[in-house]
Amino acid sequence: MENITEEQVLQRAACLADEDPSHTYHKSYKYFVSYFFDKPCLTESDLVVGANFTYGWMPTILNFKSTEFERAVTIINKAKGAERITDDEILILKRLINNSLVGVSKLLHFINPDVYAIWDSRVCNFLTGKSHKQKVENTSLFWSYLDLCQRVMKHSKFDEIHKSFIEKIGYEVSPMRTLEQIMFINSNEPLQ
Asked: Global pTM?
């Protein structure tokens, strides 16, 4: 993704003007983010509740695939901070939460939308032109995607696009959410 320019992503931002603020995702999104924002310390209960409401945005049912709840709670509390969690930590979360990087990325985004963007098959397809499971579940691609988002957010045109999207939908979202929406909406027209 290092070869993707900020301009290539931002040229696709016109799609945000057509976004319907009454869509189900918009209705639930602000409550999901608020749930975690209001909690200074997350518990196992928060992990279980959050994973389950995250799976309301998934086509599959949630199954916990490991018993590493205690370690996962430590990791999601760390994820509330400004620094990203590690590869090993994301794998612990992935093993627990349906063995799905997509589910983990959504949960991490709801916990800390300023640091993590939602990663799914549509975003992967937009960026790589492919969305098979091996690519979507690749943590290196996920980190590269977050790095790309950081680069795009620094572009001189981004603030205006971000503010316009917030005005359109009628509530605050992080810059990461705005970028993910550009990529998600344009997934049928990949950059590559």
From this structure: 0.96
